[in-house]
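#lab-general

N.A. 3:47 PM
ok so I finally got the sequence cleaned up, no stray characters, all 235 residues accounted for. can someone with queue access submit it? mine expired

B.Y. 3:52 PM
send it over

N.A. 3:53 PM
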Amino acid sequence: MNRTDRLYALVEELRAIAPRPRSARWLAGRSEVSARTIERDIGALQQSGVPIYAEPGRTGGYCLDKARTLPPVNLTPGEAVAMALALRRLEGTPFQVTAGTALRKLVAAMQTDDASAARELAGRVHLVRRGGGDGDGPRVPRLVADALSARRVLRISYGDREGTATTREIEPLGYVGSPTHWYLVAWCRLRHSLRAFRTDRIGSVTVTAEVPAPRPLRREDLDIPYELVHQLTLG
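B.Y. 4:20 PM
back already:
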């Protein structure tokens, strides 16, 4: 059994007996590998977002939160927003209407708290209407992409138009996307004001332990003509 098949089998085994646990030794015997290999596999699954937990004690082991892995989907709020962004590419095609119904079905299948978090996250993503291509710009760094979900103060190195870099602590509030660039909108503690940071100019990123006080982000806070910007919605 290759590793991909083994990981799938582990999830299915834990789902089948949930909420009861299985020990690493039992799972190792079932997969014909060592207990240490099973522990590494479980760690990989946890890092990928599979809700597997360890129960201590003589009768403990690994168990799966079955309620969060029920079919048809188990999207995180970030994944739901990513789907909404991807489906927007279908605007102007024969599949525009069905894309909207598909998105609503996906959101309806999510856990209630996750769906609420996804709608709140989507409300902080703004897209600029402008002619041009599809906007296949530079890749957004992972820590920047996760900034809103993490809800932590970021310490970044940011380069201006001339390439001069400054170190700043920022409180992420939202995103603005255009056909050419993505911007992280945040409260800048260096400038004591709202700023839009072009993501391809963000150098190093450190996620701090500080959770900032909530700040609203309204469309009128953005320095963009009103008719050119709209909030992302989930149907």
